Amino acid sequence: MNPVVVRNVAIGEGIPKICVPIVGKTREEILEAAKNILPIGADVVEWRVDWYEDIFDFEKVEEMREKGTFTKDISNIGYFEAKEQFLGGNAAMFNSGAWDIGDFEGSDMASKIGFFWGPTFSDSQYEQQIGIKASGGVYVVSSKAAEDPALLDAIMQFWQFYYGEEGTKIIAEDTAALPCSTYNGQIDESQHPVLSTMITALNDDWKAVTEPFNSLSSNVAYGYFDATFGVMTGVYTPEEAADYVENLQSAER
User: What DSSP string describes 218-240?
Assistant: First the structure.
């Protein structure tokens, strides 16, 4: 496996690297978190741009770039590439969620994987114990299905099964995934250590916040990330970034 170099840090060779996320919602929170991370000696800092309250305002992102918030040699590593590094034992942390439980459960390191929402700092004046506790496996069907009574009836029967007691039991116990509906059964921690760890985290007292990307298709959501990163690096103007995302949305209409 070839190492991935992020600036001058080689991920995938030598000792595991420490990556600390920044999950501030405002520009001030982001800058303060960056300042607090500097003394702890992290190898890589990950900015969770999806937490930024002005993520959909490309002009705000451009303003942050012009004020020097981002380094000139800012780097980006792909999600699946980072995941490969983590499962290969070459990264100490990986920014993930319930969608990766199945892959983690099937790995040799399943019993060693823990979960936490992120670091907190004793000298911060901002609320820090917040996490995205979103449902997974939510199905969305086009309104056009209502034009075909037989198709609509089949969809409704599937939903009743999927979100009912039997479907929920299969999701939780057989596929080691988090169901969207209420589940009152028991998870075997020895068989599903990662799922058990995730459930424990979801039931803690951290505040749950919504993530805007949950209302978008995967294609458009990742397009937002690409567009935002383009503005951060100066590749896109805010207008070009907005047009790029609008074209992705138009293609799905």
Answer: HHHHHHHHHHHHHHHHTSS-HHH
